[in-house]
Design goal:
By secondary structure, the chain is mainly alpha-helical. The protein is 84% helix and 0% strand.
């Protein structure tokens, strides 16, 4: 089994995914938007989203070029190709976010139009829009990996020695490029969307007493734009990076497997790429299972597709492992059965984390009912109860992640842990489709209100949106679980390349390691602080702008004047582009500074510390925010719930939770993986520097 076989498999899988995305895009654009107000307002959202993403990428170009120049100068000989691989990873990540979001901003109005025909018709459009994002991500990821590998092995061959010393270090540059774009896309998009969301909610709902998505609210267009740049483009870039990182991490661990013959190591390196391509096929098949039935929740239809794809992938794991590995036992632990089971561990663990996330954040679950009850006594008890729920929610996922690590390690060592991480993301094509469906449904509901469509349309989009909140929370659960396992395999690859490779040891009693642990444990809190502060500052500017427009133009609330939507979009855009730089710089520079100033042992401690606290903080923040959000929706669904004191308390909780679940929490996933991949990339430089 050669690397060439893996390249062919990746090309086939990538092309299938992109062809599916193209077909769905053509189908979506063929649906006419017959209402002029709906077409016009949707155009505002699309224009704002495209403008923001274009400006964001323009800001990132110098950073990408500077990093590429550093990689070209710091590396010697053939490894200078790592710079080009880095640029390609950044381009693929940016392209996936751009095209996925572009289609999402077209699908929102068409979802609203099809809602006039019923919930099944609306669900098909919203899910189709999400599937373009999902399939574009996995398609570009696999084609990018295939291109880098194809060029590298054509230049340096595919012997185990050349793969270990040259080809796979070059491939790690692709993962670094994806991680870099993902961090800025997540942080920038999160700041944009939450500045608009907080401003729209506090002034619109609490102060002015107008409904959500009321066209009289100047921040409402910016809020809908934010759904796309944060929850579609941002999430897409996030999971693109997780997907690439897990594949690259497994490949590196496979070729570096200890006490294993060269032919087996080659097969271990090939298997993750082949299995990822198979996962694309399973995801495409799963999309055909998403069909809403009359009287049934759309959640059942989406679950059928997600779990159906997972089942198909699970059934194919052993046959593919037997094909690639030859079906024989090679060293007692890395045989086809064990590798397939390790992958299945990750698949089951990812599903379990999703179910647990739904329990802590879903509508009408005991934790959310508890928060809703606390809203009756005011904002203080709402915040206290919500934070208690969020803290408790860290326990079950950590137990699941721990069980997956122990089980996968027992089956296949560190390589087994890597395959468990990939198993979590094996059906990313449909997982991300379901996740991106949520913002499209949310936008469709807002558009239905703003364009004065029939009340029945909003009822249907509200049902889709309620499910979207849960799918978004489940998507974040998958992202957190995969981040934990991917970070572990990248950390393991770093310790093999740098610590063990330099003849050093990793011991928690070493003062250098201890200092690194403390520094690493602090970084997620510093990073989150900067992200939260950015939202606070930009939300203040948004609130002042909305208040100013209401004060100076009283005709807005009387519906005799049109609000200045562009002013609010501009505030969010400027704030996001300005405030995303420092958190991103901290994530990128910290491993470099610690590695070159503190040493390899301190950097290893840093990675261990940032992984542990980062995973826990990400779970806490994501679940707390999701629970507050659905507690608010629960109260809004009550008779006389909207406008009540309990509702106002719930809005405060939801507002506090917005930056938790949509900015700082999700961005931490990328933070820990970015720091790990940077450390892996600079490992050869550190060995030379400290040698």
């Amino acid at each position: 089994m050669t690397v060439s076989f893996a390249i062919v498999a990746a090309i086939v899988g990538g092309l299938l995914a992109l062809l599916y995305a193209i077909a769905k895009t053509r189908w979506i654009y063929a649906i006419p938007v017959e209402l002029e107000p709906l077409r016009r307002i949707s155009g505002y959202i699309a224009e704002g989203a495209q403008a923001f993403l274009s400006r964001e990428y323009t800001v990132l170009v110098p950073f990408v070029l500077l990093t590429a120049a550093f990689l070209a100068l710091a590396n010697g000989g053939a490894l200078r190709l790592q710079a080009l691989s880095f640029v390609l990873g950044a381009l693929c990540s940016a392209a996936a976010g751009f095209f996925g979001m572009r289609v999402a901003t077209a699908a929102n109005s068409r979802t609203a139009m099809r809602a006039t025909l019923g919930i099944d018709a609306a669900l098909k459009v919203a899910f189709a829009g999400g599937s373009v994002m999902g399939m574009t991500v996995v398609g570009l990821a696999l084609l990018g990996i295939a291109l880098v590998l194809g060029i590298a092995i054509s230049l340096f061959g595919e012997s185990v020695g050349s793969l270990s010393s040259t080809v796979f270090p070059i491939l790690s540059g692709f993962s670094l490029g994806a991680s870099t774009i993902a961090l800025f896309a997540r942080v920038g998009g999160g700041i944009f969307t939450k500045a608009a969301d907080v401003g729209a909610d506090l002034v619109g709902k609490v102060e002015a007493g107008i409904p959500e998505d009321d066209p009289r609210n100047p921040a409402v267009i910016a809020d809908n734009v934010g759904d796309n740049v944060g929850d579609v483009a941002g999430m897409g870039a996030d999971l693109f990076e997780s997907y690439v990182g897990s594949i690259v991490g497994c490949v590196v661990l496979g070729i570096a497997a200890q006490n294993t013959s060269d032919p087996v190591r080659l097969r271990l390196a090939v298997f993750p790429i082949v299995m990822a391509a198979v996962g694309v096929g399973a995801s495409i098949l799963g999309t055909f299972l998403v069909r809403a039935k009359k009287g049934r929740s759309p959640q059942a239809a989406l679950n059928r597709g997600t779990f159906g794809a997972a089942g198909i992938a699970a059934l194919l794991m052993y046959p593919v492992a037997a094909l690639v590995m030859g079906g024989g036992v090679f060293d007692g632990s890395r045989n086809a059965v064990n590798i397939a089971l390790a992958s299945a561990f990750g698949l089951v663990a990812g599903s379990a984390i999703g179910i647990l996330t739904e329990f802590f954040t879903g509508t009408n679950t005991p934790p959310v009912l508890k928060i809703a009850k606390a809203c009756d006594t005011g904002p203080a008890t709402t915040i206290i109860t919500g934070m208690g729920v969020g803290m408790l929610s860290t326990l079950p996922p950590v137990l699941v992640i721990s069980a997956a690590i122990l089980g996968a390690h027992a089956l296949g060592g560190l390589y087994g842990v890597g395959m468990a991480a990939l198993g979590m993301l094996l059906t990313l094509g449909i997982e991300l489709s379901v996740d991106a469906y949520g913002p499209i449904a949310d936008n469709a509901g807002g558009l239905a209100v703003m364009s004065a469509m029939e009340p029945g349309v909003r009822e249907i989009t509200d049902k889709l949106d309620a499910v979207g909140n849960t799918t978004a929370a489940i998507g974040k659960g998958f992202a957190i679980g995969s981040a934990a396992l991917t970070s572990i395999i990248l950390f393991s690859a770093f310790t093999q390349a740098a610590v063990s490779g330099a003849g050093l040891s990793f011991s928690v009693t070493d003062p250098q390691v201890l200092v690194g642990l403390f520094l690493g444990a602090m970084v997620p809190f510093l990073f989150s602080s900067l992200a939260m502060d950015a939202i606070g500052v930009s939300a203040f500017a948004m609130i002042e702008e909305v208040r100013r427009q209401f004060r100076e133009r009283p005709g807005i609330l009387l519906e005799t004047e049109t609000p200045d939507y562009r002013a609010c979009v501009d505030i969010s855009t400027k704030a996001a582009l300005k405030k995303m730089i420092l958190p991103g710089a901290i994530a990128a520079l910290t491993p470099l500074l610690v590695g070159f100033l503190g040493g390899i042992e301190m950097l290893a401690g840093l990675l261990a510390g940032v992984t542990v606290t980062g995973v826990l903080l990400a779970i806490f923040m994501s679940n707390t925010g999701g629970a507050w959000d659905n507690a608010k929706k629960l109260i809004e669904g009550r008779a006389f719930g909207k406008g009540s004191d309990a509702h106002k308390a719930a809005v405060v909780g939801d507002t506090v939770g917005d930056p938790f679940k949509d900015t700082a929490g999700p961005a931490i996933n990328i933070l820990i993986k970015l720091m790990a991949i940077i450390s892996l990339v600079i490992a050869p430089m550190l060995k030379t520097y400290w040698g």
